[in-house]
Each structure stands twice: as structure tokens, then as C-alpha cells.
């Protein structure tokens, strides 16, 4: 199957699973569930849940990877809802539509984000209850990734970095944790479901770091060079908040060079793993326009 067809097939499976595994919009209280589904269904590339599926398929998977994929998308969507809030990035657009707090209200958006975060772990606990060791590993991986030293830690350092110069080491910490961590976790969760050995898991993790860092560098490039219509979200927020980005530290030329190096390394790893879809995905992610 060609890359775009494979990615579209993953998206279709994920979209169907979201509606299968998450509460309907008329579940009481309907407003918070409507807000959850609004943000979950607002489009997006579904890259992180697709990575769960693609990684699991590399190995001799005996378990269904879809619940884990949906859990990852629930957690990812929570981060987007909260990132867009007035207290954070104060964005009006996300995935080409109104952000959750614009479509509903700020309080509902906060609660919808909280509900998606907690539901991710409920989903893992229930759907993998027949395989407790796997359930524990998946919950541990996702909870560590979502915690104060990774996703939240990266976001906190990003906020602290506003209106001041930060070092390259601090910038890399933000990139590795705010963006790369969940990409790497998605791959690791898929590898766990697939029963991958330690060597394969090490390779999958390195691949995740490469495309995760590359993804954030590309985001920084696009935020500096693209427009809101093309991106489907507010751009220029980093410059407006005086945030240090890869572009502001290294310039566009060096940022693009670093992006190319990370993409090449990711592709080398895929050659070793015999993972053509992941190899093509690395190129796709780091040549995107939105």
C-alpha cells in the first residue's frame, strides 16, 4: 500500500475507534462530552495514534493497538485544548476551526481537557485489563510522558522562556519534552503491544526522538514563515510572546539543515528496522506545509 493510502487507512481506523471508545456527545453532562468530541473530531493529521498502529504492526502483535492509539489522541487533544487557552497561547484557531474555548467557553474547555487526560488512562486500564502486564506498561509510559518532567515540564519551561533569551540546552529540553516525548511514547506503546525486543525498542525510541525534534523544528520554521490560513491555526504567536525558538537561535538556514540531518537519521533507522511506512513518514512530517 502506498504511503498516503496507508496513512489515510490509519486515520480512518482511528476516527472510527474514537467514536467507538469515547462517550457520545449526549452522555450526561452533554456539554463537556460535546466539547471533548468537538476537539477530538476537529481534524488533524492523527500522527501520534498512527505511530502506535504502525509501530505495533512492525512486530508480532497479539493485542489490539486501537485503544492505545485513541488514548494517545485523547491525551494529545487535551494538551492542544489547554495550550490554546488565554492563560497559555491564547489561540483562536486550531486545525482550521475555532478552538475549544472559543466554540464553548473557557471553563468548559478546561474541563474537557481534564476529562480527555483522565479518560486516556481509563481507556488503557479497561481495554487491556485481560493483559495486566501490558496495561501497566502502557499506563506507565503514557503517564510518565504526560507528567511534570516531560510534557508539562516542557510546557512550563516554554512559558518561563518567554521574554528572555534561553540557552540551546534549555531549548532542546523544551523540544524534547513538549513535543518529542509524546511522539516517542506513541512508538514505544506500539512496540510494547507488538512485543518488540529491547534492541528494536531502542531503535524505535531513537527514531521517535529524531522525528519528534524534527517536528518541533518544522513547527518553529512554519510559525516564522507560514500564515494562519495555510496552517489552520494562529501563527506568529512565538514571536509575539518573544519566545526563543530554533529559528530565533539558529536562523532558518541552520534550522533547515538540522531538520534534514534528523530526517536522514530517522530514515537510516527505518532501513535497519525494515519499516518503509515510518521511513516515508519521517520525510512527510518534515516537508509538511501545515
Describe the structure.
The protein is mostly helical and 290 residues long. It has a single domain, classed as Farnesyl Diphosphate Synthase (Orthogonal Bundle), CATH 1.10.600. Helices cover 73% and strands 1% of the residues. The chain has 14 helices and two strands. The protein has helices at 3-21, 30-40, 47-57, 66-83, 100-103, 106-127, 132-146, 151-160, 168-194, 198-225, 228-231, 237-240, 246-273, 276-285; strands at residues 93-94, 97-98. The chain has a two-stranded antiparallel ribbon. A hairpin with a 2-residue loop joins strand 1 and strand 2. The chain starts with a helix and ends in a 5-residue tail after the last helix.
The name of the CATH architecture is Orthogonal Bundle
N- to C-terminal distance = 24 Å
Averaging pLDDT over every residue, what do you get?
91
Alpha carbon gyration radius: 18 Å
User: How would a crystallographer describe the biggest sheet?
Assistant: 2 strands, antiparallel
Cross-sheet strand order for the largest sheet: 1-2
Shape: globular
The level 1 CATH classification is Mainly Alpha
**CATH homologous group name:** Farnesyl Diphosphate Synthase
Our count of domains comes out at 1
Pick out its properties.
290 residues; mainly alpha; Farnesyl Diphosphate Synthase; two-stranded antiparallel sheet; 14 helices; 2 strands; 1% strand; globular
How are the SSEs ordered, and which strands pair?
Elements: H1 3-21, H2 30-40, H3 47-57, H4 66-83, E1 93-94, E2 97-98, H5 100-103, H6 106-127, H7 132-146, H8 151-160, H9 168-194, H10 198-225, H11 228-231, H12 237-240, H13 246-273, H14 276-285
Antiparallel strand pairs: 1-2
Helix pairs in contact: 1-3, 1-4, 2-6, 3-4, 3-9, 4-6, 4-9, 6-7, 7-9, 8-9, 9-10, 10-13, 13-14
